[in-house]
Specification:
173 residues, elongated, mainly beta, 11 strands
Length: 173
């Protein structure tokens, strides 16, 4: 099964430099002096690596078929591989649910089951927003057999953010 993830990012990556900001210090006897301060911001392109969606702690996927992360300040760090297990053939319309993702805690080594997820890191610093689109490129196949008419549907997606003021999202299929 091919999976394609497309991101449309609005806005430009900005490198900011702030210089010459005045800082004033006052003494108890009425004297004062001024100092200067400066800061330079650079793009953060460090890979984030997958994190537990509940605890935000680093984890290692146990699935050997993980999708490689993208790079840059707006990156897709992790995409669960969707496994539907073995299903009996039927002449009826059927619904198959993907199995849970198995993640290994990097500190304790404990393996836990988590809902399938996509992790995105936005280190652009512009709050420009982004949109994630999931596309099913072709019908599901197993060797030469094809599951005609199958549709991948994401039901009740939720969005979590490590940002303190949360995030806005829209549900979709």
């Amino acid at each position: 099964m091919n999976k394609t993830l497309k991101i449309t990012a609005l806005g430009l990556v900005t490198i900011l430099g702030v210089s010459g900001t005045g800082i004033t210090a006052f003494a108890a006897d009425g004297g004062s002096t001024t100092s200067k301060g400066d800061v330079t911001f650079e793009k953060n392109t460090d890979p984030s690596g997958p994190k537990d969606p509940d605890t935000d702690k680093p984890v290692e996927p146990t699935d050997p078929e993980i999708t490689p992360p993208t790079s840059g300040p707006l990156s897709i760090d992790y995409v669960s591989t969707l496994h539907f297990g073995t299903q009996k053939i039927s002449g009826n319309d059927e619904v198959y649910y993907a199995t849970l993702d198995k993640l290994k805690d990097t500190e304790t080594g404990a393996i836990s089951d988590k809902p399938n997820f996509v992790q995105i890191t936005d280190n652009r610093g512009s709050n420009a927003g982004w949109k994630l689109t999931v596309v099913q490129d072709a019908q599901f196949k197993n060797g030469t057999s094809e599951l005609a008419g199958a549709k991948l549907k994401l039901i009740n997606p939720t969005m979590k953010s490590s940002k303190k003021n949360g995030c806005k999202h829209t549900n979709g299929e």
